[in-house]
Amino acid sequence: MTDKRPILHYIILLGLAAVWGIAFMFVKVALEGFGPLTISALRLTIGAVTISLLLYPLKSKLPSTLKQWKQCAIAGNIGTTLPFVLISWSIQYVNSSVAAICMSIIPLSTLLLAHKMTSDEKISVQKIIGIMFGMLGVTILFYDTIHIANDNLIYIALFALLFSAFNYALSGGLIKRLECKDAIGSACAMLICSSITLWPIVFIFEMPMDIAPKMDAIFFVLFLGLFSTGIATILLVHLTNLAGMTFVSYNTYFIPLVGIAAGYFFLGEPVNDIMKISVALILAGIFIAERKGKKNASS
User: Are 293 and 127 in contact (CB under 8 A)?
Assistant: First the structure.
């Protein structure tokens, strides 16, 4: 089933990895002008407006029933609101490249969730071995980051990033179960619901009307809203419906590479041997876990 995928599936997958991988650097820079909650809310709102403008020209429709809206609200808040807020907050305390590496556990989380949420992606001994490799890679990254920083907030930031990755994995299963199969309409509904949820919280904890951000911070937030949120959410929903939650999670093969490269070239963030070992172990874990699945799928 997965052996002869259309090339378009892989193009979309790489596109998602690119816009999500570079987003960590953009969030890091945008934090110089906006608070983490405000960045997240602006991303969601700009994304929702972007998709709304595409509904009529592409002949798409929003969900038509209350149940479909509830499903989109749950998927949106779990898959966008929580991760956006936690990632934006965490990147204040860790490098953007470290945040990108933490997203590498999404496929491993997806393997565990798929065992419960699907009937044809069950756990196996080989998948468990793969998960253990991945967890070892994350543990090494934790130790190195905490050892260098020696700050208790680093613990919280890293766990928040891993929780964000788990939420991204969980949202794949929720998207797959959406009754509204219109990718653009579902994506729009998800971001509308997420925006409505987050803005009241922004005005409670931050003062978005009092800030005076520089133009570069504004540009990065616009990019995050248009591409890393709006367009990316459409691609995410569409690809999940086409190829399944496990295949979509493979974009995180590349997110660490994009995130590390962006942080290194544009922000001057260091790339040490521990980070390389961590990425290698995580990717090896994903390879081991998925190799068994492919054999089963072709048998």
Answer: yes
**Of the candidates 182, 143, 158, the residue with the CA atom closest to the CA atom of residue 56:** 182
Number of compact structural domains in the chain: 1
Q: What is the largest CA-CA distance in the chain?
A: 61
User: 1 lies in a domain?
Assistant: no
User: CA 183 → CA 6, 96, 133, 171, 249, distances in Å?
Assistant: 18, 30, 34, 14, 17
Q: How many CB atoms lie within 10 A of CB 23?
A: 28
Write out the residue range of the structural domain in which residue 249 sits: 7-298
- Please check whether residue 175 is in contact with residue 116, taking contact to mean a CB–CB distance below 8 angstroms: no
The alpha-helical segments, DSSP class H, found in 56-207 are 66-76, 82-90, 96-102, 106-117, 125-149, 152-176, 183-205
> How many angstroms separate the CA atoms of 299 and 176, rounded?
25
Q: Phi-psi category of 268—alpha, beta or left, where left has phi over 0 and alpha has psi -120 to 50?
A: left
Q: What stretch of H or E contains 263? A: helix 255-266
Per-residue tens of pLDDT for the chain, all 299 residues: 444 678 888 899 889 989 999 999 999 999 999 999 999 999 999 999 999 999 999 999 999 999 999 999 999 999 999 999 999 999 998 888 888 888 877 877 777 777 676 665 566 777 778 778 877 877 787 677 666 555 678 889 989 998 999 999 898 889 988 999 999 999 999 999 999 999 999 999 998 888 888 899 999 999 999 999 999 999 999 898 888 777 787 777 778 788 888 988 988 988 888 888 888 887 787 678 666 444 444 33
Question: CA angle 181-182-188, nearest 5°?
Answer: 120
Contact in structure between 158 and 14 (CB atoms under 8 Å) = no
Within a domain: 2: no
| SS3 at position 62 | coil
Length of the chain, in residues = 299
